[in-house]
Amino acid sequence: DAKTTQPNSMESNEEEPVHLPCNHSTISGTDYIHWYRQLPSQGPEYVIHGLTSNVNNRMASLAIAEDRKSSTLILHRATLRDAAVYYCIGGDSNYQLIWGAGTKLIIKP
Amino acid sequence: ETGVTQTPRHLVMGMTNKKSLKCEQHLGHNAMYWYKQSAKKPLELMFVYNFKEQTENNSVPSRFSPECPNSSHLFLHLHTLQPEDSALYLCASSHSSGQGYSPLHFGNGTRLTVT
Questions:
Q1: Per-residue pLDDT at B58
Q2: Facing residues of A45 across strands?
């Protein structure tokens, strides 16, 4: 059971980097670490995923600890449109993903 | 525009009504999913279809009946619902799990209220 732990909420200033932490100490060796976000009144949106190495895409970067017990989602320059609930999930297939409460990210202008 | 379209966006129904939720995707995906998102509860997977065949049913009550006529369309038929079934129902799609990991693409959901 790849349960994850995230802070309930975080605040950040606009145009500054944001580091969203996630602990997943029970993750198995084949479980990916997935990040999705959900903007108000919308369905969740895929952000990024990784297994062992750090990953970058146009939306964010994912830094994975060497022991894979934690990871950090990095938004390099937050905008007001990044205000959302961010979900960190472990699993090796979509139907095994166990969604938690996520972190509500508040961006201050 | 997410590529996954759900209709209607909002639905109010009585406990004796029968209604259906519709989901459509044109992303070329062959796996489709129904999720339930209740207030203050995590997202719950309800059903999974791969290549039109149901592969997961997470102990969902029989008053929810899914239908997948083809890889692009998914329905959730509702009958004799209870007030606690009021929630946001989300549809998602992806490439089949047999093709390596493929991210989920979600629609914006149907907000269901059972009175």
A1: 79
A2: A37
